[in-house]
Amino acid sequence: QTKTGIALLYDEVSENAYDIRLKLTKEVLTIQKQDVVCVSGSEHSANHRTVTLRRQPVGGLGLSIKGGAEHKVPVVISKIFKDQAAEQTGMLFIGDAIIQVNGINVESATHEEVVHLLRNAGDEVTITVQYLREAPSFLKLPLGSPGPSSDHSSGTSSPLFDSGLHLNGNSTNTAPSSPSSPIANEPKYEKRWLDTLSVPLSMARISRYKTGTDKLRSNAFEVLALDGVSTGILQFYTAQESADWLRAMSTNISDLTLQNMKMANKCCSPSDQVIHMGWVNERLEGTDSSQLYKFKFLALKGSSFYIFSTPPVSTLDWVRAEKIYNLCEVLFKIHKLWFADDCWLQANLYLGIHQDFDLEDQRPYCFSVMVGHGKSHYFNVELGSELAVWEKSFQRAIFLEVQRTGSKTYMCSWQGDTLCFTVDFALGFTCFDSKTKNVLWRFKFSQLKGSSDDGKTRVKLLFQNLDTKQIETKELEFQDLTAVLHCIHSFIAAKVASVDPVFVDSQSIARKYMYSN
After folding, report:
1. Pair 462, 448: CB distance under 8 Å
2. Which of 116, 180, 272, 311 is paired with 88 by a 20 to 30 Å CA distance?
3. For 316, which DSSP code?
4. pLDDT for the residue numbered 342
C-alpha cells in the first residue's frame, strides 16, 4: 500500500521551506517536486517558456504576481484567473518565475519594478518564464489548479502581497482584442509532480533531533539511507501528520529489517540466530562534558550483543563490530523518565543493582546496557514502540543464551585461596576449590536473599540455610565483579521466566508505558 501526502522540505541554510509531495511504499520513500512538463507538440524544453499575452479590456493579463529581489526570491505568478488571458494560453502556471518582460531581464528586479513593466508594456506582452521548483513556503502559493475568477488578490494572504494584473494596464486600444489562445502546433504544458529523490528504506534510519543537540525538531524529521543519502528535513503542517508519517516510515523500516534478519538467519546455525537489530543513538560524553549523540547499529545474535557504526551487510561484517559482549554478562535497563516503577525482573530484588544515571538528558525512550568492569552504554530510540521491542528482545536473547549455556564458571579468591564460582541454570550456585575440585558450598537460586558489594572486586552473597533458616554470608573476590553480578541476574531472570513467564511480561516497563499512553 502506497501512502502519499504534501509536506515541506526545510533548508537549514536559507531557513526556507519548499512544498514537496511524499510517496511511501514498502521499500522506498520518494520525494517529488512540482514542475511544468511538455506533454505534446514540438519538444521544447519546459525549463524556459516564452508566452505572448494579449491584454483584455476586462481582466487585463489575468494573473497576479508575488515576490521580488527585495525578498531574495524571483517574481512569481501567484494567481491565474479563470477564462482570462493567462489561463487561455495554456502555457502559464502558478509558481512560474518571470525571467523576461518584452525582452527585458527581470531576474534581479524588485516587485514594484516588475509590476510597473507589466502594466506599461502595451496590449501585447511577451514574457519568458521558468517554473520555480523550490518556491519558499512563505510565498504561500496554492498547489492546486488555477483558482476561481472571484479569488481576487488580497493583502492578507501572505507576508508578500499579490499584485493583481487582471485589471487594465495603460492600454491605447479600446476595442476588444482577440483572446490569447494556444495555437494548434504549439506545445502543450502541464504541471506535474516529478520524482527528485528516492531513498531506499532497507537499513535506513530516522532522526528527529537537530544535529549535535538534544533539541527535538518541531513536527519534523529526516530519513537517512544506508549509504548516507538524506531526504533533508521533512516538515509537516501538524503534529498529527508528523507522527503518522514517522510511524508509517518506522513500520516499513522495521518490516524490512525483519526480512534482512530472516535472510541472515538462513546462513546461521540455530544457536547463532539474529534475535533483533536496528539503529539507535548512543550518548557519548564530550571532552567538555557536553552530551553528544552518535548513530549506532545494535544487534542481538547468538551469544553476543554487538555494537556497529554501520550495519553488517555480509556474514564477514560481523567480525568488524566496534564492541562485542556476552549476553549473559550485560544488564538491560530502561531509564526513569516517566516510569513510576522500575523493576525489570524479580532478580533486581535479589541483587541490589540500582545504578542510576544522571538524567539531565531530555531525550525520551532511553535505555542503557551495563557491561563488565562497571562500564555502560546509554542509548536512545525515536519511538516508544521501538523501546518496547528492544526490552523484549534483550530479555529473549539473554534467556535463550542462559538456557543454551547452562552454566558459567568464574575464577575468584577468598583469603588467599583460588576458587571457582559456578552459576548453573539447574543447580544454582556452587563454589569449589580450583585445584582439588572439592565443593565448598552449594545453594539454590531461591536461597539467595540479597547481596552487597564494594563496587570494585568484593561481593557478599546472603543465602538462607534450608535446615536452620539462618542467613549464611559468603564473601568472594572477582577480577570483573560487574560481569559476575550481571551473570547472576541473567540466570535468575531466566529461571523466573521459565517458571512464570506471565510475571516476566507483567514487568515490562516500556509496554506498560505504551499501554498507559
Report:
1. yes
2. 116
3. G
4. 35
Given the C-alpha cell 579468591, which residue does it identify?
413
For 95, left (φ over 0), alpha (ψ -120 to 50), or beta? left
Q: What angle do CA 307, 313, 316 make, to 5 degrees?
A: 80
Which phi and psi (to 5°) does residue 25 adopt? -110, 180
Closest CA to 295 of 361, 212, 415, 183: 212
State the Cα–Cα distance between residues 133 and 107, nearest whole angstrom. 15
Contact 162, 78 (CB under 8 A): yes
Mean pLDDT within 131-136: 84
End-to-end CA distance of the chain: 27
φ/ψ region of 469 (left if φ > 0, alpha if ψ in -120 to 50, else beta) reads left
* Cα–Cα distance, 234 to 7 (Å, whole number): 7
Length, in residues, of the chain: 517
Predicted TM-score of the model (pTM):
0.78
- What's the grid cell of residue 307? 555494537
Angle 413-415-420 (CA atoms, 0-180°, nearest 5)? 25
Which domains does the chain carry? 44-135 (2.30.42.10), 270-398 (2.30.29.30), 406-504 (2.30.29.30)
CA distance 257 to 287: 35
d(CA 302, CA 63): 67
Phi, psi of 85 (to 5 degrees): -50, -50
For residue 4, how many other CB atoms are within 10 A of its CB? Answer: 12
pLDDT of 170 > 60? The answer is: no
Q: In Å, how far from its chain's centre is CA 483? A: 33
